[in-house]
Every structure is written in structure tokens, then in C-alpha cells.
Amino acid sequence: MTGNDTRLNDIWIKASPWVFTIALFALWEAVVLIFKIPPFFLPPPTAIAQAFVDYSGPILRNSWITFYATMIGFAMAVGFGLLLGLVVGWSRAIYAGLYPLMIGFNAIPKVAVVPILVLWFGIGFIPAVLTAFLISFFPIVVNVATGLATIEPEMEDVLKALGASKLDIMRKVGIPRTLPYFFGSLKIAITLAFVGTVISESVASNYGIGNLMLQAQAQFQVPLIFAGLIVLAIEGILMYLAMALLERRMTRWAQRSGFGQN
Amino acid sequence: MTGFVSLDGVSHAYGGGTGTLAVEGLTMSVEPGEFAAVVGPSGCGKSTLMKLATGLQFPFKGTVTVAGAKVAAPVKIAGMAFQAPTLLPWRTTLENLLLPLEIVQPHRRELPRKRAEYEARAKNLLTSVGLRDQGDKYPWELSGGMQQRTSLCRALIHEPQLLMLDEPFGALDAFTREELWCVIRDLHAMRKITVVLVTHDLREAVFLADRVFVMSARPGRIIVERRIELPRPRDLDVTFTPEFQDIVHELRGHIVKARQ
Fold it and tell me: Which CATH superfamily is domain A43-250 in?
């Protein structure tokens, strides 16, 4: 390839996410027009855009509430997940004991937990935060514990033969090598946290995008339902990007050394 | 038993006394300052021997003595290097070298105050293995041979009395391996430390060691002990002499028998 071709290729790669997104919406609009799909069944993107304009106030307010609840739940998941991951990765016995429990807990659909949360805290903000927390801490725990549990035995031997304590090994090797796993798990956790918030909002809340969509459905305002979905997608993408950026920043060594890719 | 490292009638099994035996009735003794090599068929418990001698594992029968004391905990005076260089990818070469000093006393206490002094020591050590000015590079920027040199330096930085090497050159190409033989030969001559080298490479064992111990198939014990009288300092050319070849052949015969 000549230099010019490479540059063109780079531009194409940079632009392609936008091109594909716009193409998707254009195709959607075209399909609705060509097949004359009624807007209450599948509204065209233009109708959804109109809904954004018409309901900008409620959409903004509710998306902020959803975002806020998600971030609090996510922050709790990060704190708790990191702590539990360190504990679980610390000892084989705790790992063996807690692992089946965590698998079992993770297998429970979180929507089934919402009624209990409502029973304890009433409907509204708190169940949304807690559902976001409950659904998103698991990948963090598993990743942190995996990072600790996969320390090379030889590395441990080198340090033990120097008289290193378990705490020394954790501080010098365990925790630094776990960071790529931890930051990697945040990308998964943040998207799950949105899922949790919306589940709870659509079952038991008077606020949030989840609730807005439920109300829109009841009033047959189908474009507004889709507007809600798009808001969720945008919030999810933005937070995912933020986490990916954080990961790149914090663990540059791991990407350059190809750590964890073999 | 007067050796610096002594194993006396040692039996060890993973998973307690009921598991399959890794070594059984193993007796050997390494003199202070001696270079000992342990060879044997694969799976004969050579690595177990390393773990026993450094206090990472304890035998259910027999005693292990290092520097006059019975081993009941990790020995703390040993440096170790393995086939994999096990360098930390988030640390530069120099920072990897300083790792043992962050663990072992009295260095651990003194490192924050005397950092410059310790860094100078680490740089000297790097220079002595041909890694001058490579201290700021990260492990993945080094070749396999350079990583293994760094790993050797890390095993030596805290000036241990005992150096334990578990097939440290096994993953290297033939030329790099021979280069590193000379590196380790010179380090041993310079520092007069006791070295125990576990290897499956007979030429390596004969070239480097004062004595070669041959282990039997699992459960491992010492079946032959061969003193290598080749004069020091040894040059790589010695490996092409008839005497050298004869010793290698002789040892090879023992291993072949041990495998049957």
C-alpha cells in the first residue's frame, strides 16, 4: 500500500462507526417507508427524532435520574466487587467456599429480586440503585479474583524464597497484575448496571427512563418508547467509552506487553 | 553432614505422605562455594529437590539442612531463577532487579534512604551480565536471552549465599544458552557462592559444575555422584575435548539406565 492509500484507509476506519450508524438509521427509515409499516408498530427514526423534540423535558429529566442511579449502583459495585474479589482471590479456601454461592447468586434473574427490594425500601430510587449494584458487581469480583489466582507459581516461589509474606506477594505482584483484569471488567459492569437500573425502574419506580418507557407504552406513544431505548444506548456507549479510556490509561503496560492475551 | 546444603534420607510426596512419591530416600550434600548440577530423566523430581532445598516444601521423612540450620521455613538466603524469566511486565528491568531488595531485610528497611546506592549496585550487576544501559527498558522490550540475564541478576541482587537454578536456559536457543553458561560461570567465580543447577542438559552440567548428581526416575534419589575435574577457568572450547565428551557419555549412560 502507498502512503496515500494508508491514510485513506485510516480515515475510513475512523469514519466507519458513524457511517454504519447513519446507514442503519437510513435503512430503518427506508424499510418503514417502503413496506408502509404503521408508526405505532415500528416508528421511523424521523418520528423518534420528533419525539425527542416534543418530550425533551421529560426525556432529559428521566435520563439524568437513570444515569444517576446507575452511577451510584456502579460505584457501589466497584467498591464491593474490588473488596470481595481481593478476599476471594486471597485464599483458596475462601475461593472454593464462595464460588458456588456467587454462581448461584449470579444465576438469579435480578428482576426477581426487585420485589424484595421494594418490600424493604419501597418503590423508587433505592431499588434501582441496588439492582444496578447487584447485577454489576459479579464480573468485577470474578475478574479481580482471577487476576490474583493466576499469579505464576514460579513468581510466588521467587518471592517466598526471599521470605516474602502473603501481604508482600499481594502488594508487589497480585494487585498490580490484577489491575488489567479489574479495569477490563468495568466495561462489562457499567453496561450491566444500566440494565439493572432500567429493570427496576420499569417494575417499581415513578421515575427514570425505564418508567418513562412503561408510561409511553401505556399511552401508545411508540416513538417515545424508542426514544427511551436510544437514550439508554447513548448513555451505555458513553460510559463504556469512558471505562475503555480509563482502562487504556491505567494499564498501558498490559497492552504493550500483550499481558493476559496468551 | 557438613555440607552447605544437605538433604539426608529425604522423602517427599505432594498431597502428604499418601500421594505419589516425588523423591524417596534422597541424600546429597553440596559444599560451600561449590557448583553442583543435578541431572536426571524428566519427571524425576528435580524441581521438588529445588523446593525442598529452599524451604518451599517440607519432606515427610528425612531432614534438609541449609547453612547449618534445619529448614523449617523458606530459607531467605537463596536466590532463584527458573526456565521462565518471571519478570513483572509493569516494572522496568531496573525496577525488576530491585524487587528482592523490597522484600529482604536489611535492604527493605534501607532501600528508601539508599535508593541511589542500590540502583548503582543493580546497574553494575546488569553491566556484568552484558546488559549495560538496558535498565530503563521493560521486559517485553528485551530478547529472551536478555530477559533470562535479568532474571539471573534478580536472583543475585541481594547477594544470596545460595543460588538455585531450575533449568534456567531451557527455553533459549543454543548460542544464547552457551553465552549464558559463561555468564553464570563468571558470576560463580566472582562471587564464590554456592550454586545448585537443575538441568536436563548434560553438556551444561559438565561444563559448569564441580560435581554432577544423577537422579533416578521417579521417585527420585541420587544414583551417581560424579566429580568434574576439568580445570577452571573453563572455556567453551573445553566442551569439544575428548575428556569432556567422555564424561558426558558416561553420565548419559547412567541416565539411560535410570530411565529403564
Answer: MetI-like (1.10.3720.10)
